[in-house]
Specification:
It is built from six helices and 20 strands. The chain has 352 residues and is an alpha+beta fold. It folds into two domains: 2-259, Zn peptidases (Aminopeptidase), CATH 3.40.630; 264-338, Beta Barrel (OB fold (Dihydrolipoamide Acetyltransferase, E2P)), CATH 2.40.50.100. The strands form four sheets. It has a nine-stranded mixed β-sheet with strand order 1-2-4-3-7-11-9-10-12, with helices on both faces. Helix 4 links the parallel strand 9 (156-160) and strand 10 (178-182). The longest helix has 18 residues, at 46-63. The relative contact order is 0.14. The mean pLDDT is 97. It binds zinc ion. Residues 41, 44, 103, 148 line the site of zinc ion.
């Protein structure tokens, strides 16, 4: 393993960040290559735990001559967001200066030529230079796994329809319970930026069997531990072996994903009509009927007349819930996977 430290100067004198890039050189130049990063949203750590436990497995494979394709790992992809604390709380989703989500507004390139991206020392804000740098690191690889997590959540994947059904193997390897499929725009999330150049190729040249680009949602914010980190690392390892990036004859992945594959427009985003205390009636993983009680927002504490109870617009599965219990008007409260288009469907990513 080679460790590369990439320094990006800050936007004012006396500041800089350091991106730590771990590289494993493959011995077979025809093998599929892989890029894995975690914590683009600062404090989303289940993926970081997975990579923490995966790296020693990769080192072992390397010492035994079993790395076939190049592997690049960036366990902490966003040192800017990781350092954003305010009043003792970590806030890693939106960049302080611009209020732009760290996983939106990536450059969408028409080809794999990255020479037009912002230079590492160019006259651009640090967040933009960081995004350009992450894209430069990822684009040479056929597999790009961006490891995130949701609030309280099952383990699930975002996948562009161009990579389905080929990527059911990843869902099987990780034990994902659902796939959210998309084909319009994800507001230029990292996943879309890595998918975009692929989609500009004629279908026959996309090589979907070799490629895999996804946002992995490794359950919820607090699902960070030795057990989950180890099993997620093993899942990633199984997938990399299955795709021929690593050689390991002891691993035999059975592709048997049979969870829901839900287009984004079929996801019911249940939003708070007013602010207040959140009382959930359902947990993640629950299958509910249309009209089932999902959540009550208590707008007037002490007076039940102020309670607003939201019900399921259609039957489906509860994929995620917010972890906070105090909401503002318009906040997302939970995601329900439906089987038909949501009346509230809108283009772009599900969340701000
Ligand atoms: Zn995230």
């Amino acid at each position: 393993m080679k460790t590369e430290l990439i320094t990006l100067a800050g936007d004012v004198p006396g500041n800089s960040i350091e991106l730590r890039v771990l590289r494993f050189a493959g011995k077979d130049e025809k093998a599929v290559t892989a890029y894995l990063q975690s914590s683009l949203h600062g404090s989303e750590l289940p993926g970081q735990a997975a990579l923490h436990f995966l790296v020693p497995m990769l080192e072992k494979a390397e010492s035994e001559g079993r790395i076939a394709g190049d592997i690049t790992v960036v366990p902490q992809a966003n040192p800017v967001g990781s350092a954003q604390w305010l009043a003792h709380q970590h806030l890693g989703r939106f960049e302080y200066f611009s209020n732009v989500n760290f996983n939106r507004s990536f450059p969408l390139l028409e080809s794999f030529d990255a020479s037009g991206l912002a230079a590492i020392d160019g006259p651009k804000a640090l967040a933009e230079r960081l995004k350009a740098q992450l894209l430069r690191l990822a684009l040479p690889h056929e597999i790009v796994l961006d490891l995130h997590c949701d609030d309280e959540s099952e383990s699930y994947l975002y996948i562009h329809k161009a990579f389905l059904p080929e990527m059911y193997d990843l869902a099987s390897a990780l034990g994902s319970t659902a796939i959210l499929s998309w084909d319009s725009t994800a507001d230029a999330a990292f996943e879309e930026a890595c998918t975009h150049p692929v989609l500009q190729l004629p279908e026959a040249e996309r090589n979907a069997k070799r490629r895999a680009v996804t946002t992995v949602e490794f359950r919820g914010l607090n699902d960070v531990g030795v057990d989950t980190g180890t099993s997620d690392a093993e899942g990633l390892y199984r997938f990399l072996v299955h795709r021929g990036v690593i050689i390991d004859t002891d691993i035999d992945l059975k592709v048997e994903f049979n969870g829901p594959v839900t287009p984004l427009e079929n996801v019911e985003m249940i939003r708070a009509p007013q602010g207040g205390m959140v009382l959930f009636h359902v947990d993640i993983g629950a299958e509910v009927e249309a009209g089932a009680k999902l959540v009550t927002v208590v707008t007037t504490p002490g007076d039940p007349n102020g309670d607003i109870t939201l019900t399921a617009p259609q039957a489906g599965r509860i994929l995620t819930r917010r972890s906070h219990r105090y909401t503002r008007r318009g906040d997302d409260l939970l995601k329900l996977l439906g089987s038909k288009r949501s009346d509230n469907a809108r283009p772009g990513s599900l969340e701000a």
